[in-house]
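User: Can you model how heme C sits in this protein?
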Amino acid sequence: MSGPRLFALLIGCLVSGSVIAGEPDADRGKRLYKVCAGCHGFSGEGNEIVGAPSLAGQETWYLARQIGNYQHGIRGGNGDDTLGVSMAMMAQALTSEEHSADVVAYINTLPRPTPATGAGDPARGASLYAPCVACHGEQGQGNEALQAPALNLMPAWYQIAQLKKFKEGSRGRQPGDTYGAQMAPMAAVLSNEADMADVTAYILSLNE
Ligand code: HEC
Ligand code: HEC
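Assistant: Here's the modeled complex, given as structure tokens:
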């Protein structure tokens, strides 16, 4: 067994408690979240230095689905996606669907953070955002029916990193990634990092 895998397993043993079916338990989620806080921050505010996005304020259906995606190699299953691979190992710390639901329920109690804006040009980004509206919404608020997450609360550096992964193919191309496969061609319409920075700046201006 490789070192990181053993580490993830040990953490999994440490954080797992008894499994009780029923409503998600945010108190148990708070205990389970301790292992996440090291990267995502105690308030789920994210940490650019380790590449961990904010989680607070994001829709619960999206968080739950992403945790499952990491656990099943649908996300973080491509070796070029170094940070995705490391998050996929951390997702193994949640040893049951109940625990995942509990952590998500706890994250849902945390206040929505103010996202870090980047250096992009929001005016230029407005027209680049036009094809995104159908799924992510006029205000970048997301759309559950299409499983498209809220973007207007995600830090610029994180959005740009994800757009690059979708464009380069290390996210959205794994077998079983139905929704990532819908997003990937959209990143391809952004021709370079400047476009990505501008569209992100526009999305974040929707908060103002
Ligand atoms: C070692 C640092 C680290 C730890 C610990 C960690 N994460 Fe992450 N997490 C990351 C990184 C880095 C990313 C971004 C990975 C990528 O680019 O795909 C991420 C991404 C995520 C995402 C995707 C968010 C989005 O907007 O798509 C979710 C959900 C998530 N983590 C939940 C958790 C939970 C729950 C825990 C605790 C069980 C946890 N993470 C522990 C580093 C970590
Ligand atoms: C056909 C619907 C659709 C369109 C159009 C679309 N997206 Fe997405 N987008 C999605 C879905 C679905 C996801 C979630 C993918 C997953 O589950 O991994 C997503 C994910 C993302 C993410 C990652 C968010 C996170 O928390 O990890 C970013 C950033 C993003 N989209 C930006 C954009 C931008 C910018 C555009 C326009 C250029 C766009 N999207 C157009 C459906 C769409």
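A couple of observations from the model: The two ends are 49 Å apart (CA to CA). Residues 87 and 177 are 17 Å apart (CA to CA).
User: Helpful, thanks.
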